[in-house]
TrEMBL record:
Domain HTH gntR-type positions: 13-80
CDD domains hit by this protein: WHTH_GntR
Lineage, top ranks: Bacteria, Bacillati, Actinomycetota, Actinomycetes, Kitasatosporales
Source species: Streptomyces javensis
Name of this chain's protein: GntR family transcriptional regulator
InterPro entries named in the record: GntR_C, TF_FadR/GntR_C, Tscrpt_reg_HTH_GntR, WH-like_DNA-bd_sf, WH_DNA-bd_sf
Record keyword Transcription regulation present: yes
Keywords, sorted A to Z: DNA-binding, Transcription, Transcription regulation
Any single Pfam family the record assigns to this protein: GntR
SMART domains in UniProt: FCD, HTH_GNTR
Domain of life: Bacteria
Entry-linked Gene3D superfamilies: GntR ligand-binding domain-like, Winged helix-like DNA-binding domain superfamily/Winged helix DNA-binding domain
Length: 251
């Protein structure tokens, strides 16, 4: 199978893209810890493919920042720095509102149908306390919203940013801040219901073609989400004049 970026598994061909997605998912989920080696032979055995699509997948993951190549060690899971973690949040805060604005201008009825269906499901799961089912729904919602922007490049970048942010802040959460005495911890169920209410308002603005409203709502929603990431892993204050202020704690 030399030179072929597809593998055969169970009588069907597995593309390098599918292998890449599988390795990426395992990195994001923590199956491969930062700094751990990724050998072609072991990966090929794990996913039941040849080394050719694995090699192609590792090159792609390196370009995305999930994998790095070390001298004398080969491919390893990347170890993101504090600066990179903070930069990811700043970039998302800039691009996600732009994506929502473009979605209001370019969305199709098919996009709206999916978005409305996801909001309905998200609200039902949140109200029923089925919080463990909300993350994949949220990922699907934001990927659909990104696709509705009508820009494949922007959509791909937004999806990659969300994946990488989740990975970075789960991979090395660091010390959690000590809550202030008497402070009330946010109720996860209440927060989930509020988040999906924000999703619903955003879809309404996108459906009306109100680009300004969609951008404003996405800004509020994104700032709240990114503030929650910062609480997981406090980032040292930087002096960059381009940093985004999310001190309000809005998501």
């Amino acid at each position: 199978m030399s030179g072929d970026t597809n593998a055969v598994q169970g009588g069907r061909r597995i593309s390098a893209h599918a292998v890449c997605a599988a390795i990426r998912d395992d990195i994001v989920s923590g199956a491969y810890q930062p700094g751990s080696r990724l050998t072609e032979e072991l990966l090929a055995r794990r996913y039941g493919v040849s080394r050719v699509p694995v090699r192609e997948a590792l090159r792609t993951l390196e370009s995305e920042g999930f994998v790095t190549t070390r001298r004398h060690a080969g491919a390893c899971v990347a170890q993101p720095s504090e600066r990179e973690a903070a930069d990811l949040l700043d970039i998302r805060a800039l691009l996600e509102p732009l994506g929502a604005e473009r979605a209001a201008q370019r969305r199709t009825e098919a996009h709206l149908k999916v978005l409305r269906g996801l909001v309905r499901l998200g609200r039902e799961r949140a109200q029923g306390g089925r919080l463990g089912e909300l993350r994949p729904l949220g990922d699907w919602f934001h990927e659909t919203l990104a696709q509705a922007s009508g820009s494949p490049s922007l959509a791909a970048l937004l999806v990659q940013l969300r994946r990488k942010t989740a990975w970075v802040y789960a991979a090395a959460p660091g010390p959690r801040p000590t809550p202030l005495e008497g402070a009330v911890r946010p109720d996860p169920a209440a927060r989930a219901m509020e988040s999906w209410a924000e999703h619903g308002a955003l879809v309404d603005a996108v459906a009306r073609g109100d680009a300004d409203r969609a951008r404003a709502l996405a800004t509020v929603h994104t700032e709240r989400a990114l503030s929650e990431f910062r609480l997981r892993r406090p980032i040292p204050v930087r002096t960059s004049k381009h940093s985004v202020n999310t001190a309000s704690g809005r998501n």
